[in-house]
Amino acid sequence: MADIEHLQIVKASAADVYFALTTAKGLSEVWTNELTVHELVGAVNEFQFGSDDLTKMQIVELIPGERIEWLCVESDPEWVGTSLSFELEEKKGKTYVTFRQTNWAKVTDFYRSCNYNWAMFLYSLKLYCEEGQGMPFQRRKF
Predict the structure, then answer these.
(1) Torsional class of 112: left (φ above 0), alpha (ψ -120 to 50), beta (otherwise)
(2) Is 86 helix (H, G, I), strand (E, B) or coil?
(3) What is the distance between the alpha carbons of residues 43 and 36, in angstroms, rounded to a whole number?
(4) Among 124, 120, 79, 75, which residue's Cα sits nearest to residue 102?
(5) Where are the domains of the chain?
(6) How far, in Å, CA of 105 to CA of 81, rounded?
(7) Residue 12 has what pLDDT?
């Protein structure tokens, strides 16, 4: 098994970062504009990346200002069954965001590409929380 793990420090409150990661408004600025988002444990969020790239994430845990966990239930086969979590810790006006995507079957080229793209996702989160505009899929140039 392989895991992806990143740390991003955001100059914003944990409440603001949590909002960005759990609402349609926030996630549309951070990840993709094409989405259906619920804010209820057990619900399934849908994220579209182009015409034939749909990802569905079941919400496993929501602890406001502290933790978000999703389980991938539909996407690329390498993603299905992986868990994604965001742990938030606020210190001195900054929020430390620890992101993990766990339970990858093995390290592949797709894993490596996703590792890079999760770093870009966290950079987009930082931009949105600090400057008011993120870098979702539709605005990316890389």
Answers:
(1) alpha
(2) strand
(3) 10
(4) 79
(5) 2-136
(6) 9
(7) 98
Q: How far apart are CA 115 and CA 110, in angstroms?
A: 8
55 has which bridge partners?
47
Q: Which of 74, 98, 101, 86 is nearest to 1 (CA)?
A: 101
Predicted local distance difference test score (pLDDT) of residue 142: 64
Helix axis angle for 109-131 and 14-22, nearest 10°, is: 120
Instruction: Give the global pTM.
Output: 0.95
Q: Judge whether 100 and 121 are in contact, CB under 8 Å.
A: no
**pLDDT below 70 — which residues of the chain?**
142
Does residue 29 come out as left (phi exceeding 0), alpha (psi in the -120 to 50 range) or beta?
alpha
The class of domain 2-136 in CATH terms is: alpha beta
